[in-house]
Amino acid sequence: MDAIAVNDLSKSFGKGTGRRDALKNISLQLPLGSMTALIGPDGAGKTTLLRLLAGILTPCSGEIRVLDRAVPKEALALQNRIGYMPQRFGLYEDLTVEENLDLFASLHGIAHAAREGRFNELLTMTALGPFRKRLAGKLSGGMKQKLGLACTLVHSPQLLLLDEASVGVDPISRRELWSIIQQQVASRNVTVLLSTAYMDEAERCDHVLLLHEGEILAQGNPAQLAAPLQGHAFVLEEIDAVARNLQAGVAQLPGVIDTVIQGDGLRIVMDKPAPPTLPEKLAGYATPKPVATRLEDAFVSLLFSRTQRHSIALPAQRGATHDDDAPVVEVKDLFRYFGDFAAVKDVAFSVRKGEIFGLLGANGAGKSTTFRMLCGLLPSSSGTLRVAGVDLRTATAEARARIGYVSQKFSLYGPLSVQQNLSFFASAYGLRNQHRRDRIAWALEEMELKEYAGMNAGSLPLGYKQRLALACALMHGPEILFLDEPTSGVDPLARREFWARVNALAQGGTTCLVTTHFMEEAEYCDHLVLMSLGEVLAQGTPTEIKAKVRRPELPNPSMEDAFIALIEEHEQASRRAS
Amino acid sequence: MKRMRLTGLMRKEVYEIVRDPSSIAIAFVLPLVLLLIFGYGVSLDARNIHVAEVVDHPTQITASFLAELERSAWFSPTLYPDQASAEKAMLRGDADAILWLRSDFTRLSYSAGSAPIHLTVNGVDANQARLIENYVTGTWLLWQQQEATRTGARLSMPVVADTRVWFNPSLRSRDYLVPGLIAIIMTLIGALLTALVVAREWERGTMEGIMVTPVTRTEILLGKLVPYFVMGMGGMAMSTAMAVFLFDVPLRGSLLVLFATAALFLLTALGMGLVISVLARSQFVAAMVAIIATFLPAFILSGFLFDIRSMPTIIQLLTHIVAARYFVALLQSSFLAGDIRSVILPNVFGLAILCVVFQGIALLRFHKRLD
User: Fold this and answer.
1) Size of interface A-B (CB pairs under 8 A)
2) Residue A134 shares a structural domain with residue A16
3) pLDDT tens across B15-69, in order?
4) Is A463 a member of any domain?
């Protein structure tokens, strides 16, 4: 028997012209005890599929059978046997860890006598035992997510549906979440269907479903999916040039599907099993070495074959000026308290002109708070902040005229068209007449928004919204650009395009400060600050940071390995201190 | 329906109420503030009417009449030298009325059939103008009678009205405003409480987690209804206590009838809140809808401030779907008149129908679905 059997399933939202197909004629079978990953760009229909399976959406047509029950007709009878964890698992923040578990135990009709044993088991598994009496609202992001999973598992479900359970969670919690899920599969033969944005998680599943615009683009086990690209992947190692400058060049070469900065080198995926022909100036000192393909290669090449690609050319490098080494952003002894909670503790760093500077950390690490202080949106509790040579304590307005800010949720006006958004931001920055017309024309041209100029910002695809937000922030030609979690919730394709744009900007002399919780994106930065719980764990170039954790047993650590090692080291140090 | 699930949901709701002060504020602080503001601030009685007095030819008689005005609790008179300066005072807003005693006042005041006082009233507020007119005329008659007894002359007046006021003999508008106000407050508490707490669950994403458990929709709705019903009745008890002990409003009916009708009304109001929460999934929209769709009609169309019988027929018909209308009538009779069967029965009937309608819509339209 299949755990999930779906036949010719379709689902659309809205009516009339606003009608949008979320899923188109999907059919699939997942056997009992299997572990399946659902991957695909944003808006592919992943969440809709999971909600349909959980019985909280009604299909427009098609059949769904889950654990041999018809959904949504027999959903009520089924809901005792499945565990569904929504993307934003709603914990009751005013209830303690234990009270949350108790509520879900009651809703699933678990006898009081049986609860204690099950709670202990779950709390041990999630390492939340010591926080039993703590309010859920006072837990860190990672702990909340683990508690959400514990609530989902309280009735020992036979089928687990997880919607991006690990997004935005710090690497350690992510690792823990993943081991809990795997334990369920191994010990109780639970069937798992999970959606994820992390390719490494998908790679660990038995089966992968690639969804794109409501259709299954490909499915199979990860190795199978990557197989057709065997021999297409190459790596350029130990290149002297700045890897991201090289990347932009290589991406333009014929036959190149994808390029990613990885460690000190560049990973290239070709459309044929032949290495790229490098331009003369590179051919001398770096030769492409073939490497094993991975799921992400398949994912990217499949999606690139379906969507229009945007190649972003690098502008000519601006001439070096004499004050190149002077820092444009300087932060010293920065603190920020909310009540008695220290969101930012003793943070210090400096950023030089034309750099891409990354602030890395999980949700709640203090990245956004630091950013808001740098943009003058939030006063600091104490410390020095200098942006573009101006002290933010005294001359916020002056500094603001020289910075651009793209907030986490892209503050655009949804009901205004692209053109209207641009002209609004132009006037907000005080641009007039010819200058204003020039900048708007520049934005439409440079960000490739021309064909969307008349469309409302609210109905743009996410990738275009991001471009528009970027264009609005660049309207007044700022020296420094702040980007707060620009890649959060964005699929790998849009993320690649985004980084190419940031790279082009930095090349043109704009200093870019970026926050992200994707550890691998650190590779695109010149300098990094790793943050955790308001404190700086480490800073330096990506190579320097990784070198800190290089051990004989871990000769080639990834940024994620480095982050985990540094957090553990930091925790030990603070435990010794106390 | 399973008791364990229902108690689980209700226990959760109680923890949230205790730890998040916003619902306590709605149930107890909001009625407290509203009752204080309306109880002390709003009065439909005209008091301290500023009267500008102009006397052309002062005599003992004019002095005697003016002294009568001075003694009255309703007037605070000021003497002006001439009509022109009194008119200026009225234009400035310093005077609500001008009382002009012409030079022939003393001579004519004893002869019947003539009108020796000349009264000019600021008619911008029509209601107030009518009150002033009546008060001045009343004072005038009273003074004439006194004068007649004093001088031994017979006052020739064809009919003297002997009025008696029932239910509110001292004619304090507060006594009928406060019971009406309780109805308005209970509308707001009932609708806001449920509309907000359900919308909060949508906003915080907790509803999605609850929906995939075997809980039934009746359990979800009851889990909301019961705790907030208890809270709302607490607010009702507090408002009643304030009305009786702070504002000295008499309570002539029985507490049983008062609280039984209040319970029925609260269920109706909570039902309206649940209907709103089915439609509005953000707290902001829910609060706006609750205020516009329940509070404002209750304020305007319940007969609390504006008499329903003087409204156009179509509006009068419309008031029948305003639950507060029935509750205002019930409360006013409970407080001022007593348990009157002929008032209680039709109003309870009206409320019961609305209660079933709203609760029914909530139950039918609430699905364990996102679409």
Assistant:
1) 92
2) yes
3) 999 998 888 888 889 889 988 988 887 766 667 788 898 888 888 888 888 888 8
4) yes
| A56 contacts B214? CB cut-off 8 A | no
A393 and A533 in a common domain: yes
Say which residue the tokens 């598992």 belong to. Answer: A153
With CA atoms as reference, the chain A residue closest to B211 would be: A56
Set of chain B residues whose Cβ sits within 8 Å of the Cβ of A76: 214, 216, 368
Q: Give the number of domains in chain A.
A: 4
The answer on A164 and A53 residing in a single domain is yes
Among the three residues A447, A477, A507, which one is the final residue of a domain in this structure? A477
CB of A444 within 8 A of CB of A475?
A: no
Lowest mean pLDDT among A70-79, A340-349, B100-109: B100-109
Domains of chain B in start order, with CATH, are 3-42+172-365 (no CATH), 49-151 (3.40.1710.10)
Q: Nearest C-alpha of chain B: how many angstroms from A387?
A: 36
Q: Do A57 and B208 touch (CB under 8 A)?
A: no
Q: pLDDT tens, A488-547?
A: 767 777 788 888 888 888 888 889 999 888 887 888 888 999 888 888 989 998 888 888
Residues 6+ apart with CB under 8 A from A351: A327, A328, A329, A330, A357, A511, A513, A527
**Residue with the two structure tokens 């914990």:** A91
E-assigned strand segments in A312-370: 327-338, 341-352, 356-360
A100 phi/psi in degrees, rounded to 5: -65, -45
| A300 plus A156 within the same structural domain | no
- Sign (positive or negative) of CA dihedral B127, B133, B137, B139: positive
In a domain, A155, yes or no: yes
Which residues neighbour A179 within 8 Å (Cβ) at sequence distance 6 or greater?
A: none
Taking contacts as CB-CB distances below 8 angstroms, the residues of chain A near B12 are 92, 95, 99, 103
Closest C-alpha to A497, from A89, A130, A41: A41
Cβ separation of A107 and B20 shorter than 8 Å? no
One domain for residues A112 and A136: yes
Q: How far apart are CA A263 and CA A472, in angstroms?
A: 33
Q: Are residue A373 and residue A431 in the same domain, yes or no?
A: no
Domain of A362: which CATH number?
3.40.50.300
The mean of the pLDDT values for chain A is 85
**Residue A485 shares a structural domain with residue A473:** no
The contacts of residue A544 (CB under 8 Å, 6+ apart) are none
- Convert A19-47 to b/e letters by CB count within 10 Å (16 or more is b): eebbbeebebebeeebbbbbbbbebbbbb
Which chain A residues touch B if contact means CB-CB below 8 Å? 13, 51, 54-58, 72, 75-77, 79-80, 82, 84-86, 88-95, 99, 102-109, 135, 148, 151
Same domain? For A243 and A283 the reply is yes
Across the interface, of B5, B11, B206, the residue whose CB is closest to A90 is B206
Chain-centre distance of CA A522, in angstroms? Answer: 12
Q: Residue B213 and residue A13: Cβ atoms within 8 Å?
A: no
Among residues A438, A462, A477, the one where a domain terminates is A477
* A65, two tokens: 């059978």
Which ranges constitute the DSSP H helices of A35-170?
46-54, 75-78, 97-107, 112-125, 141-153
Residues of chain B with a CB closer than 8 angstroms to some CB in chain A? 2, 4-5, 7-9, 11-12, 15-16, 19-20, 201, 204-216, 368-371
pTM of the full structure = 0.81
- Can you give the CATH number for the domain in which A247 is found? 3.30.70
Do the Cβ atoms of B214 and A108 come within 8 Å?
Answer: yes
Interchain pair B8, A103: CB under 8 A:
yes
Provide, as residue numbers in chain A, all residues whose Cβ is less than 8 Å from the Cβ of B16. 92, 94-95
> What is the span of the domain harbouring residue A456?
413-477
Name the closest residue on chain A to residue B2, using Cα atoms: A109
Q: Which of A80, A102, A103 sits opposite B214 (nearest CB)?
A: A80
